[in-house]
Request: fold
Amino acid sequence: MQSAQTQQQGAPQAVPPTNQAMAPAPHIQMQMPAQAPAPNGYQYQQPPQIQQPQQQPQYQQQPQQTAPPVAQPQQKQHFPHQGLNGGWQSDKDVNDRRKMIARIVQLLQQRKPNAPQEWLKKLPQMAKRLEESLYRSAKSFQEYNDTSTLKQRLQQLAVNIGMKTKMIQKQQQAQQQAQRQQAQRQQAQHQAQHQAQRQQQAAQQQQQQQVVQ
Reply:
């Protein structure tokens, strides 16, 4: 019996269940420590408050739309050719000048029906130079475009060109002759200088021989 009692005394006693709710835990309030008193003659200064910069609303500038410039048509001005006889020449005469070149080619072909192929290749350029001379020397457009006098004017122009060519050839020959004469004079001067140098050397040699004797 005693052993049974001792076992009952040593075993933990069960707590009877209760229907009452558990009481809430007490609320603990934390108190901040008070600021210590400042020493004599010294005051605490609060740190400055940092102010955040205010963001201003950004407005995007829209590009101004400008109307594209309207291209104005350029008016082509016709200026008369300066330095020509009569002063009537202008850029409007292009078509008439082409017709005149064709007429000149036809007249030249009639003069030389059996012309060689090389001459025929040079014919357009020759006709162009002849037309240029007629265009510059004419006093008016009517005189320039007169087909009845075209053959006569071309013949006179050929005579003038021949005389001018002969004059140019004479000038070239005169220049060539002058150049030859100048070259001959320079050659004669060089020969005279060489001869004088040889004579001077011969005289020095004779003096040296006389001193040795």
Q: What stands out?
A: The two ends are 184 Å apart (CA to CA). Helices lie at 2-10, 94-111, 117-137, 141-144, 150-212. Confidence is low (pLDDT under 50) at residues 1-12, 14-21, 75-83.
